[in-house]
Design a protein that fits this description.
The protein has 239 residues and is an alpha/beta fold. It contains seven helices and 16 strands. α2 packs parallel to α3.
C-alpha cells in the first residue's frame, strides 16, 4: 500500500511518518507542502492513500480532495488538521478519516488498522457484480445478494450501507464507487448520501425548496432527493 503525506509542518510530518512506519505496512513514497504539486504528482503516479493537511499552499486540502474525488480510481483521503470545523466538508468528499492535531497515538493506530483492512477488502474481497448478484458484507461474512432486493444505499464515511427489506449490509467502498457496480436502469444517485432503487419507489412527496422525499415499498424511512439531482430525477420518473 503506497501513500503520500501532504503537510507543511516539518515536525507534524515527521511524527506522522513515525506512526505510519511503526504501526502499518504503508510505504510513504513522497512528501509535499504544496497542493498544486500534489495534484500534478497524482495525475502521473498512482497512490493508495493521501494523508492530507487542510492548510497548505496553492490549493487548500479540501479543494484538492474535491479534485481528487473526480478521479476514476481515487486514493483514500485521511485529513490531518488542527481544525474541527472542516469535518462536514470532509464528509462531503467522502474522506476515509479525519484526524485532529495534536496526534493521539491510539487514534492513529486505530485509523491505520482500519485503513489497511479497507484496502485489503477493496482489493481482494471487494464488491463485485456477477450477473444480477452482488457481494456484500455482514458480520465479517460475504453475503451474495440479488441486486433487485436492494432498496437503497447510504454513505457512512467511506463505508456504504446497503439496505434490503429486512437486512443491512456494508461494503468498503465509497457511495460513488459502489454506485458504479449497480445497474444504471434501476439505481439512481438521488443525493450525495443516497442511492435509491427506483423500482421500489411508492410515493414521491414534494418537499422544501423544490425537492422531493421518496417513500419506498415496505420500509418507513423516507429518502431525500437533493436539488442538484432533481432535473435528472424528473427525467427518469417522467415528471
Amino acid at each position: 500500500m503506497k501513500g503520500i503525506i501532504v503537510e507543511d509542518e516539518f515536525l507534524a510530518r515527521e511524527e506522522l511518518k513515525y506512526f505510519i512506519k511503526n504501526f502499518s505496512s504503508i510505504e510513504i513514497v513522497d512528501e509535499f507542502e504544496d497542493g498544486l504539486d500534489v495534484l500534478k504528482f497524482i495525475q502521473q503516479n498512482e497512490v493508495d492513500v493521501i494523508f492530507l493537511d487542510i492548510n497548505i499552499a496553492s490549493i487548500d486540502g479540501v479543494l484538492l480532495a474535491k479534485n481528487i474525488s473526480k478521479f476514476s480510481k481515487r486514493p483514500y483521503i485521511v485529513f490531518i488538521t488542527a481544525y474541527r470545523e472542516h469535518a462536514v466538508e470532509a464528509f462531503e468528499v467522502e474522506a476515509f478519516d479525519y484526524i485532529l492535531k495534536p496526534y493521539d497515538e491510539s487514534r492513529i493506530k486505530s485509523m491505520l488498522k482500519k485503513l489497511e483492512m479497507a484496502y485489503e477488502r477493496d482489493n481482494e474481497k471487494g464488491s463485485a457484480v456477477i450477473s444480477n448478484k452482488i457481494n456484500l458484507w455482514k458480520n465479517d461474512k460475504i453475503i451474495v445478494v440479488d441486486v433487485d432486493y436492494i432498496y437503497y444505499c447510504t454513505a457512512k464515511e467511506r463505508i456504504t450501507e446497503v439496505l434490503t427489506r429486512e437486512e443491512k449490509y456494508t461494503v468498503n467502498l465509497s457511495l460513488s464507487e459502489f454506485c458504479n457496480n449497480l445497474p444504471k436502469d434501476k439505481f439512481f444517485r438521488c443525493h450525495r448520501s443516497y442511492i435509491v432503487n427506483i423500482t421500489k419507489i411508492k410515493e414521491i412527496i414534494p418537499w422544501f425548496n423544490n425537492t422531493y422525499n421518496l417513500k419506498l415499498q415496505d420500509i418507513e424511512e423516507e429518502i431525500p432527493v437533493s436539488r442538484s439531482h432533481i432535473k435528472d430525477f424528473k427525467q427518469i420518473m417522467n415528471i
